[in-house]
Amino acid sequence: VVSVGRDTSEPLADACLLGGLLAYRHRQFALAALLIAYGVFTNEPVLVLPVALAVTRLWQMRRGQARPGLADLAWVFPGLIYLLLQVVQQVEVRGTPGGAADASANLTWPFAALVTGVARDVHRMSWTHLGTYDYNLIEFLVLLAFVVAGFLVLGSTTAPLHERAAFVGFVVAELVCASGEFWNSVFGDGRTYIDAYLMAVVLLLATP
After folding, report:
1. What is the pTM of this model?
2. Cβ within 8 Å of residue 29, ≥6 positions away
3. CA angle 181, 185, 186 (to 5 degrees)
4. Which of 30-39, 115-124, 153-162 shows the lowest per-residue confidence on average (mean pLDDT)?
5. What is the DSSP string of 127-184?
6. 2 pLDDT tier (thresholds 50, 70, 90)
7. What are residue 165's phi and psi, to 5 degrees?
8. Is the Cα torsion angle 92, 94, 95, 100 positive or negative in sign?
9. pLDDT-derived band of residue 190, with 50, 70 and 90 as boundaries?
10. 169 Cβ partners below 8 Å, 6+ apart?
């Protein structure tokens, strides 16, 4: 996992995300729950993964394709940890819960901030040297290539259903609905979208 900057919480959370996926694939559900919970605790966007697990597991149960069991630890435990964190924040800070504050600051209408941010980068790009807006565009184009490739293999990849759902969830949460807090930033903040990139790579590696 490559990340720009000194903050180690995001690469650590992404390592936990990947470790959790691997543990889940090998049916090490307790380990998967611990890793995913730690990822959620250190970087809230990782919450998309347990949500994807919950949706797919409940859908499979509804269709009679699965039964409640240890596999559900991977989404129940991280969800409980997140709720506990919100309660602690509410009691200690006595203000808007962290989850609600993050959602209002970090999410917006689909494509609203994305289109504005990319248009600004194109308008301010340089043809003589690599500036901060040029780096933004390079990061965006690379990310876009992997995301498009991820969607193209969505039906043919051998990756489990919950991983495909997590990929879509991360794209929606971290790209499509991300606010100007991210899209108006400059060089170095492309790491914000790394979860969508990582899940795209996971799908591609699992494609024949």
Report:
1. 0.85
2. 23, 70, 71, 73, 74
3. 170
4. 115-124
5. SSS--HHHHHHHHHHHHHHHHHHHHHTTTT--S-HHHHHHHHHHHIIIIISB-HHHHT
6. very low
7. -65, -40
8. positive
9. low
10. 48, 49, 51, 52
